[in-house]
Design goal:
With about 60 residues, the protein is mainly α. Helices cover about 60% and strands about 0% of the residues. Helix 2 crosses helix 3. The longest helix is centred in the last third of the chain and has 12 residues.
């Protein structure tokens, strides 16, 4: 499983690696973050930047499963 120390959560590949390592679909991650799955898709393909708040939310989820 990818740990936070070696994953850039604000890069498309890093976000995808974090999500897939936890067995989450784009839909499931979208629900956790209260965004549409299309937004998660756009982040993962690099169409739009990943906000800092997403990184903070993922770090929180990591510490409070």
């Amino acid at each position: 499983m990818a740990t936070l120390e070696n994953v850039n959560l604000r890069s498309p590949a890093g976000l995808r690696a974090w999500r897939t390592a936890r067995g989450l679909s784009q839909v499931e991650l979208g629900r956790l973050l209260e965004v549409r799955y299309q937004t998660v898709y756009r982040w993962e393909v690099g169409a739009v930047p990943i906000p800092r708040t997403v990184e903070l939310a993922l770090r929180y989820l990591e510490e409070h499963p």
